[in-house]
User: Fold these one by one.
Assistant:
Number 1:
Amino acid sequence: MGNIVYIGTSLDGFIADRNGGLEWLEAVPNPDNDDLGWEKFLEGIDAIVMGRKTFQTVLGFGVGWPYPKKTFVLSSTLEHLPAGFEGEVEIINGAVAGILRALNFRGYKNLYIDGGTTIRQFLSEDLIDELIINRLPILLGGGVPLFGELPEPLLFEHVQTTVLLNEMVMSRYRRKK
Ligand SMILES: NC(=O)c1ccc[n+]([C@@H]2O[C@H](COP(=O)([O-])OP(=O)(O)OC[C@H]3O[C@@H](n4cnc5c(N)ncnc54)[C@H](OP(=O)(O)O)[C@@H]3O)[C@@H](O)[C@H]2O)c1
């Protein structure tokens, strides 16, 4: 597994709308509250690495900490965590390659990488092993992009594609080296 991205995008490749909003992720009716493989995915990872902006988005949901795995929040500005998060969340800072080495050394080998800027940094250093991308049938026309410029092309191999709720297309790709 290694470093994995698991993310919902618009057809035009945005992960949040122009206001940072995520309401469009709920646009597809899901009458049976199918978790779309989310719990199984979380079971397979050791920890989460997320950008500060994504962390603040999750805090804004106001539902407590929803993840069952240790979370490392990348930030150079956050000084304190909100009360009650100390055991579950840790703030880290620095170059992603060094962060990765430190986390692997601590036994966190399979990492869920989350947040646009964060994912793009890992990709630009060729540090993503798997991409799981769930495309929703909407064009947002702007917002936070999933992908950006890379120093060189990165080839992935297709592992599986599943149509979810007859509306969304979830594709899994593995880095091909
Ligand atoms: N569609 C989805 O499934 C999905 C999933 C996740 C997130 N999102 C959305 O994406 C948006 C957030 O993405 P984003 O691109 O704005 O930001 P992000 O990656 O969540 O956070 C960016 C911040 O992370 C910190 N950071 C990143 N790399 C760092 C490093 N190496 N060292 C120290 N700090 C580092 C910096 O925080 P400081 O400024 O504090 O230094 C930076 O401003 C939110 O709107 C969120 O809701 C959508």
Number 2:
Amino acid sequence: MNGWGEQQGLGLYLHVPFCLKKCSYCDFYSLPVRPGNLQRYVRAVMKELALRAWDIEDRRIRTVFLGGGTPSLLSASDLTSIMNSISFNLELDNKAEISLEANPTSLDGNALQSLQKAGFNRISLGVQSFQDQDLQILGRSHNSQQARQSIELIKNSGFSNFNLDLIYGIPGQTIGMWKETLAQALELEPAHLSVYLLQLDEETPLSRDIKDGLCQLSDEDTEADMYQAAIQLIEKAGLVQYELSNFARPGYECQHNLGYWKAMEYVGIGPGAVSFQANRRYLNKRNLLQYLTCLENDQEPELEELECMEAQELVADAMVLGLRLCAGINLERFTQSYGINVLDYYKDIIEEYMNRDLLEVDNGYLRLSKKAYFICNQVICHFLPDLKS
Ligand code: SF4
């Protein structure tokens, strides 16, 4: 079953687990770059693509997303080789969205032009803030001026489809600083903006600093005000909110992420990449050396099973993801895909949250009301099997 999206085909995610240095809030699988590792990694992912292609029944690829880590640390020629390997081993849709995640310190104009020739048509830049104080707290390897220069480079290289990632709720960040970051981002006219509330794993250095009293997170009311300010300012600039944290000019919504929210299948390549196929979610183990060694011996990388879902869990998973979309869940398509009528199946929950103005049904869609956006988890969690009453 391939979700309830309109299109067919798979998403392809390729994880590049290298960064210049670790940011203070990061719990993604990323390691410092070591001499020689990049070359070994590129050879290994190309081999994994060739080996895994045989397991993929329907090899049509709708979207490609190179994420990390910092994929832009790879040279343009390595990224071109990876794209050639994808096209060679799989059926890449000729209209596929092909995104590259990048950081401001690892982009140059010549490389961007080569990437366009290689087929990349979307850049997602990890800016996070235009305030140097915020960037220092986050332990980013760039400053705000470098971010602005990179965006100019992206635009001058002819990429009209680019996203900026921004973070709010950073210790010490005031609402004024956040609005200034948003204003500067919007001035640069991105096609897409992602705004995320800072989420911290306990093991990160920033979490430890907070625990030790060296800095403090903002309170929930301030975070809610920051979220509302983002919605207001971004929509005023002509971008439309299409997901709880994502905004785009019409036609520039991220097709790869839409696939996740519509519970469509995807294949993950590279150490730490997650795949979702045939009701199973599984991970390429987060161990670079093991990954390289396996592939250098012509073996598929070791997998770790995350979830093997029964029908009821698949429905819950698709509900939890789909309710993040501002348009909501298309009830008819959902019935076609999962064989249930959502309004009957979740009758009690839907009635309760509609009465509280947190859910709405309109024109064949079930969605969160705007009032529920910031407190979405309090509503969405009730669709999980354990809590379904
Ligand atoms: S650049 Fe991204 S992946 Fe790399 S350490 Fe920073 S937050 Fe983590």
